[in-house]
Amino acid sequence: MNPENTPTLPLPDAIRTVDDFIAFQRAIWSEGVNFHPEDDFFDYVEGEDPDENGEYRPCYTHEEATLRNTLLEQAYAVCEAAGVDICEIGLDEYLYLVCGVWQSEEDQDEEEYSVETELASLPPNG
C-alpha cells in the first residue's frame, strides 16, 4: 500500500499496446502493490498487509479495483493479440525494475530505469 502523499505514476486511460501494459504495471507498483498479472484487484480491497496497529486497510476501493480489473482485461487481450505472454512480460519488468536483474544480455544495454527515478520526476500529490 502506498503511503499518503507519495507520488505515484498515472494509470493509462486504456491498454492498447504492450507498452501501455508495461506502463500499467509500473503505475501499480508505484502504488506500493506487489502486483501479478493473474491477480484480481478485488483481492486488494480487503487489504494486503497490516498497518502499524495490526489492522488491514484496503489498498483500493471497489471503484479503483474495478478500473484496474478493466485495464487488466484489456491488457490480456492486447498481449494475446501480440502473441506475447502477459506473465512473462510482467516477470521481465519486475526483475528489471524492482530487482535490477536482466533476463537477457541485450536488456543490459538499455538505459537503466527505476520506478524511484520516474517517481522522483513527478510533483508531489496534493
Structure description:
The structure is a single chain. The chain has 126 residues and is mainly α. It has one domain. Helix content is 45%, strand content 0%. Helix 1 runs antiparallel to helix 2 (62-82).
Structural class estimated from helices and strands? mainly alpha
General form: globular
Overall pLDDT, averaged?
76
Separation of termini? 18 Å
Oligomer: single chain
Q: Key terms for this structure?
A:
126 residues, mainly alpha, 45% helix, globular
Short description:
Helix content is 45%, strand content 0%.
List the helices and strands and how they pair.
Elements: H1 18-30, H2 62-82, H3 86-98, H4 105-108, H5 115-120
